[in-house]
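We were asked to recover a plausible sequence for a given structure. The inputs and outputs are reproduced exactly as logged, with field labels preserved.

PROBLEM: sequence recovery
POSITIONS: 99
GIVEN STRUCTURE:
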């Protein structure tokens, strides 16, 4: 498996201009590779099911998985930064409990 340092070209992923985010998106879509990966993990889907559900080539799903597995530190950093940014704006990410 390629490491972040050795894999510089992605066939199905691309960088988008953003002020602070560096993570990659699926080319031609408004979906981050991370979203594809998390959808698969949270919903306990196979790569084949994700490809079918998202109408993506299976190779694109595998590439998103590889990218996320090899860039976990970046993804964690950006998630924490986004959480702080939302909290600074007063947006709570905790579920509301209704009594």
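RECOVERED SEQUENCE:
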């Amino acid at each position: 498996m390629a490491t972040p340092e050795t894999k510089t070209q992605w066939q199905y992923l691309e960088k988008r201009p953003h002020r602070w985010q560096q993570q990659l998106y699926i080319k031609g879509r408004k979906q981050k590779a991370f979203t594809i990966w998390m959808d698969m993990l949270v919903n306990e889907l196979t790569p084949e099911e994700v490809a079918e559900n998202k109408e993506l080539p299976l190779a694109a799903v595998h590439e998103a998985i590889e990218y996320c597995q090899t860039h976990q530190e970046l993804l964690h950093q950006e998630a924490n930064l986004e959480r702080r940014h939302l909290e600074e704006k007063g947006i709570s990410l905790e579920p509301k409990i209704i009594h």
